[in-house]
Amino acid sequence: MNKTTFKTAVILTFAAALTCCTMYQNQNTNSTSRCSETVGLNAAALDTMDYYIEAPDGYLFTSRSHTTLKFKIRNPQPDSTISIVAIRDTSLNKSKRDTALVIRKKFKGSEGRVGLGLLGPGFYQINIGKDKFNIGIRPEEIDSPQDKRPDFEEFWNKTLKELADVPMDARFTPVPEHSDSIRQCFKIEIKSFDGATMGGILTIPVKPGKYPVSLEYMGYGAWPYYRDPSADPDRIDFLVSVRGQGIFRGPDYDGWCYEGMDSPYNYYYRGAFCDVVRAVDFVCSLEKADTSKIFAWGDSQGGAFTWISAALDHRVRAIAPSVPFLGDYPDYAKIVNWPVGVIYWLGGKQGLGKEQLLDVLTYFDIKNFTDKVECPVYMAFGMQDPVCPPHTNFAGYNQCKSEKKYICVPLCQHSMWREPVWQKERREFFEQFI
C-alpha cells in the first residue's frame, strides 16, 4: 500500500450517526448514548441521571496516546459512584465473558474521564449500569490470521476453471415499466457454475457509447428493487442476484448458508462466489461497458461478495464493501450466535463436528481472500453492528494489502445502506476513478 498517496482514513460522522438505529443504546433527545448506574442513591436520583458520550470520535481510538473514555453526566448527584466494565467482544457469546477492565469511581460535576490504556487492540462492549455500547481500539492492529487449508488455491483455481467452461447463455427480458428514453431496464438470467442460474436487474443507457459499470451485490435474503432509469444516465447499473436469492428467491426461505455443509465442494457459497465472478463476466460482455471502469459495492452479504469480486477477478477497478458478512468464522461464533452457532447446531444434527464444519468454512472465509485484492478499497462499518460485528469486518480488512481506507459510523448498527454519509462517501470514492 502506498501510504503517502492513499492513507487509511477514519471518518466519524456524528450527524449521520444520529440517524442510525443502535442496539446497545437508549437515545436521549440529542441522540447520544445513555447509561445510568449509581451507588448509594435513591431511586428518584437514579431516574434523573444520564451518562453519555458527546464527542463522535469518543467511540473509536486509533492512537496509543488517546485512550481516554470521555462522557458527560446529566443531572449529576453528589458523591455518585459509577461502575464501568469493558468486556472483550470475542467473549460475548461464550459462557464465561472476558472482562478486560472494571472501574468503580466517584465523579463530581458533569464530566467524567476514564483511562482505557490497559485495553489492547480490538472491540469492547462497555457496560455502564444496565446499558451497553461498543467502542473500538486500534482496529487495524487486530490480529486474526488467515487459516487457508493447503489446497485452498488449488480448490479455487479448479472451481474457477469449471466456471469458465460454462457458457453464460445470457437472457434479457425487457422491463418496460422501469425503462424510459434515457435508460432501459432488463431482467437478466445467466448460466453459472454447475449450470445453475444467476442474474439480476440491468439498467443501461439507451444512447450509444461506453459507460462505467456499477455492480451492486445484494445482502442475504434481500429483495430486489428497480432503479430510476432517469437517474445516473451515464452509468450502467447491474443489481446482482446470486443463485436462489434476489430475483430468484422463493417465499419463506433463507437457509442458503446451511446448504452443503459436509464439504467445500458441496457448500452453497462455492457456487455463489462463482456467481459473483460471473457477474463481472456478464458486464464485460456488454458492448456499452467501459471494462476499465467496473466498480463493485454491497452491504452485509453483498459486502462479502464485493471483496470476492476483487479477490477472484482483477477486472474490478475499485470496491466499497459495507458491513461485510462471512468473515472470521471462528471468532464470529464467539461474538454472536448467528450464523456460525446455527451452522454448528444444524451440522451436529447431521453428524458433522465443529472442526469439520470450520474446515469447510475456511474455503469461504473472506479473510482468506482479501490478500488477493489489488484495487483500491473503501470499507464502511457500524460500531454497534450486532449482525456482522466490527471485529469480523477487520479480520478481512487487515489482510488486504492494497490501497485502503475505512469509515466508521459510531452509533450505527447493521443498516449502513440507510446512511446518507456512506452513500455520499461511496459515490465520491468511485468518482475519482472515472
Describe this structure in words.
The protein is globular and about 75 Å long. The strands form four sheets. It has a ten-stranded mixed sheet, sandwiched between helices. A five-stranded mixed sheet has the order 5-11-10-7-8, with no helix packed on it. Strands 4-6-9 form a three-stranded antiparallel sheet. α5 links the parallel β17 (289-299) and β18 (318-322). The chain has two domains: 32-141, Immunoglobulins (Immunoglobulin-like); 152-431, 3-Layer(aba) Sandwich (Rossmann fold). The chain has 434 residues and is α/β, with parallel strands linked by helices. The protein has ten helices and 20 strands.
Helix-strand category? alpha/beta
CATH superfamily of the largest domain: Alpha/Beta hydrolase fold, catalytic domain
When the domains are counted, the total is: 2
Helix content percent band: 10-25%
Poorly predicted runs of 5 or more residues? 1-48
The major β-sheet equals:
10 strands, mixed
Oligomer: single chain
Note the run of SSEs as H and E. Answer: EHEEHEEEEEEEEHEEEEEHEHEHHHEHEH
CATH architecture title of the largest domain: 3-Layer(aba) Sandwich
Instruction: Indicate the mean pLDDT.
Output: 87
Question: What's the helix count?
Answer: 10
Features of the shown structure:
434 residues, alpha/beta, Immunoglobulin-like, Rossmann fold, 2 domains, 10-stranded mixed β-sheet, 5-stranded mixed β-sheet, 22% helix, globular
